[in-house]
Write a structure and sequence with these properties.
Layout lengths: L4 E9 L7 H19 L3 E8 L4 H10 L3 H10 L4 H7 L6 E4 L3 H16 L3 E11 L4 E3 L17 E10 L5 H10 L3 E2 L1 H12 L6 E2 L1 E2 L15 E2 L2 H5 L1 H4 L11 H5 L3 E5 L3 H15 L6 E5 L2 E3 L2 E2 L10 H8 L1 H11 L6 E3 L1 H31 L13 H13 L15 H24 L3 H22 L1 H4 L3 H26 L4 H11 L35 H19 L3 E2 L10 H5 L3 E11 L7 E6 L5 E6 L14 E5 L5 E3 L2 E3 L2 E2 L1 E6 L2 E6 L14
Parallel strand pairs: 1-2, 1-11, 2-3, 7-12, 11-12, 13-15
Antiparallel strand pairs: 4-5, 4-6, 6-8, 9-10, 13-14, 16-24, 17-18, 17-20, 18-19, 20-23, 21-22, 24-25
Helix pairs in contact: 2-3, 6-7, 6-11, 12-13, 13-14, 14-17, 14-19, 14-21, 16-17, 16-19, 17-19, 19-20
The protein binds ligand ME8.
């Protein structure tokens, strides 16, 4: 039988800066969904990529003194770039599209032409605001206090010839799609779209520009480049080979697919994208799911606000799987969530170190201690064979609910077995329902209920007490451990899409072979062969010391921030002229340091006793202790302005000021006293 095809995409990211934890969230979620579908035995195509055109990239490249292509190459393919991040995060994409790839460029030109030829793209005039010095067009909403958002200068009304897409023509069909199908989820986003964009009336969309050149040229009208959305959105089909010869998957039944996107671009994916496809006469996507944002201190992360969280730091510190798990377990996928390091550590400690980690380490340790790591051959058996035979048989056949009508006397230990087995056997269906509803956080919630049930089972069955009399209780103890291993195996399978590497390790420790890792076997009990070797390995998820980790994270974030700062920053030169007479009023002299000491109770001040050539010592206080130790300055020849009015600091009088040179280095102020040739006598005047 032909496998079911499942095509899923992330948005394509703007490589204008390094990606942050918000982008990672979106990509990890899509990856977990892709892996889930693969686990079910479907044939999966998972696409991600980068959206590399537009004025912002053109501007940033100019600032960096490189071509736009060189600029995006560095962010996409360079060290610590997009590709590196996805490799680190174990993202299993099958394809990666860059909108600068030749085949995509060719497809977009053909798509644009087809839409033009069928009358859906026409030439008109784009009205906006223009900043002359920046040579940039802006829309009203992009302006900052009515001025150019880049340079802050005034803008003028301006017009530019542009092509438009007849979006208005599709308003009725789009409304129908949104209101009468389950194309867009979560449902709350449908109301937003209809109320904010469809009800007020859809306007035609500007799809070409002439005021910048970093874009796909409109081949039949030189001077125009394709503007944003026809270029970016088409990636979902050009990556399958639509209108190009690079791939041939579009005709092979891969389209339509599922587009996972963040909430701010739902508008483009649920209105413009279907309308483009309608214009092309192509099938619409199966689904658009609009996830929420990860917020920091209640606000959206953005590079320009300087409040982004670096996934590299977190993955290095806590492990890739722990980070992936945290992102999926903590935040309901359709809503916004507040990121914090505390929450991350708490989730790792509670769910992974405590619940899952303990279950695995206690079970494998007991299997080692009591049975030398190999459960006896009859470990799957129980006192109530009849019951379990029935239970297993029904589960294996996969038919209907397990009959739990059999009663157990109060306190009968087999009752606990049944509860655990039932919870584990019911898990896959519950998990599946949540994953199908794009609720990975709830799917994980279901898995953790079973993990908690298994830990409770350890307390209820008290294996350490059974072990006191192995002759009498050995078979029961083996059976208890077998049940724990089976429950762990089933949970491990369902956690694989979220923590692929760690689950490999879990299976290696608990002895689950290939047949015990499949989707089918997640709904069956009694899969693990009792003789299988169980090994207590490394601790899968070590507990994290919250205070220490927070301190280290803050230090790492600070260091990263510093590393991103420019090496040297200089004060801008003053433009206001100073007349010569005013300048001559300042009396600069060469002075020699006779003595220097730190002022008591002051962290900053040094007290200088200076020879200024007059024969009387001069005292100057200077707040430079941060840069100099007093003993290093004795004997040095410096410069001072000597006709400033005396000033009192910490009860001491300062008569003048020493001259120093200052700049900013990696965000910190650096200061150097101006030292001159020791051969110059004290009192010599600067002129
Ligand atoms: O929008 N929390 O690119 P992009 C959650 N190129 N998701 C976040 C986030 C956060 N804090 N910050 C960003 C673009 N994202 C276009 C897409 S698709 C044809 C073109 C998500 O790099 C954001 O919601 O600005 C979006 O889904 C994705 O990252 C890419 O954002």
């Amino acid at each position: 039988m032909e496998k079911k095809k499942f095509y899923i995409t992330t948005p394509i990211y703007y490589p204008s800066d390094k990606l942050h934890i918000g982008h990672t969230y979106c990509t990890v979620a899509t990856d977990a969904l892709a892996r889930y579908h693969r686990l079910r035995g479907e044939e999966v195509m998972f696409l991600t990529g980068t959206d590399e055109h537009g004025q912002k990239i053109e501007d940033k490249a100019r600032e960096a003194g490189v071509t736009p292509k060189e600029f995006v190459d560095r962010i996409v393919e360079g060290p610590g770039g997009v590709l590196d991040l996805w490799k680190l995060m174990n993202i299993s994409n099958d394809r990666f599209i860059r909108t600068t790839d030749d085949y995509h460029v060719q497809s977009v030109q053909r798509i644009f032409k087809r839409m033009h030829d069928n009358g859906d793209i026409y030439k008109g005039t784009y009205k906006g605001k223009y900043c002359k010095p920046c040579e940039s067009f802006w829309t009203e909403s992009q302006l900052k206090d009515g001025c150019c958002p880049d340079c802050g200068r005034e803008v003028q009304d301006a017009e530019e010839e542009a092509y438009f897409f007849r979006l208005s023509k599709y308003a009725g069909r789009i409304r129908d799609l949104l209101e009468n199908t389950d194309f867009l989820e979560p449902r709350s986003r449908v109301n937003e779209m209809v109320k904010n964009f469809i009800d007020p009336g859809l306007e035609d969309l500007c799809v070409s520009r002439t005021s910048f050149s970093w874009g796909i040229p409109v081949d039949f009208d030189p001077g125009h480049v394709v503007y944003v959305w026809v270029d970016a959105l088409s990636n979902y089909i050009t990556a399958l080979g639509y209108e190009n010869d690079r791939y041939h998957d579009y005709e092979q039944g891969w389209w339509p697919g599922v587009n996972i996107v963040g909430k701010e671009i739902v508008r483009f994916h649920s209105i413009i994208w279907p309308a483009i496809l309608m214009s092309l006469g192509e099938p619409l996507p199966k689904k658009c799911f609009g996830h929420g944002w990860l917020l920091l201190d209640g606000g959206k992360m953005s590079k320009s606000k300087g409040n982004v969280v670096d996934p590299y730091i977190l993955a290095e510190k806590f492990g890739v799987d722990a980070l992936r798990f945290f992102l999926m377990r903590t935040f309901p996928f359709g809503s916004d969530g507040n990121f914090s390091n505390e929450l991350l550590i708490q989730t790792i400690n509670t769910d992974l170190a405590n619940d899952l980690g303990n279950l695995v380490s206690r079970t494998t340790a007991m299997a080692g201690k009591y049975f030398g790591g190999q459960l006896p051959g009859d470990a799957g058996a129980t006192e109530d064979e009849q019951y379990l035979d029935q239970l297993y048989a029904q589960a294996r056949e996969g038919g209907g609910a397990v009959n739990l009508a059999l009663g157990f006397p109060e306190g009968d230990p087999v009752k606990y077995d049944v509860e655990l087995i039932r919870a584990a056997l019911e898990l896959r269906d519950k998990y599946e329902a949540q994953m199908e509803a794009f609720a990975p956080h709830n799917a994980l919630g279901e898995v953790f209920k079973v993990i908690q049930r298994a830990n409770k089972y350890i307390d209820e069955t008290a294996p350490w007490a059974l072990a006191k009399d192995m002759e009498q209780n050995g078979p029961r103890l083996a059976h208890v451990l077998y049940n724990l291993l089976e429950a762990t195996r089933i949970c491990g399978i369902l956690l694989t899409p979220f923590m692929p590497e760690s689950m490999e390790k879990l299976f290696a420790q608990t002895g689950a072979g290939a047949e015990g890792r499949t989707w089918d076997s997640a709904a069956r009990w009694g899969v693990l062969r009792p003789g299988t070797a169980v090994t207590k390995g490394e601790n899968l998820f070590p507990r994290i010391d919250m205070d220490q980790a927070i301190q280290e994270l803050e230090a790492a974030a600070e260091a990263a921030k510093k590393a991103a700062l420019p090496d040297i920053e200089l004060e801008p030169q003053l433009e206001t002229p100073v007349d010569f007479d005013t300048f001559c009023k300042s009396d600069f002299r060469v002075v020699k340091v006779k003595a220097c000491e730190a002022v008591k109770k002051s962290a900053k001040l040094l007290r200088f006793t200076l020879d200024d050539g007059t024969g009387t010592d001069r005292q100057i206080l200077s707040g430079i202790h941060q840069w100099y130790e007093p003993e290093d300055l004795v004997g040095k020849t410096l410069l001072a302005i000597v006709n400033l009015p005396p000033r009192k600091m910490m009860g001491l009088e300062s008569c003048g000021m020493l001259l120093s040179a200052v700049h900013t280095e990696k965000g910190e102020e650096a200061l150097h006293l101006v030292m001159v040739d020791d051969a110059i006598p004290a009192g010599a005047k600067l002129c």
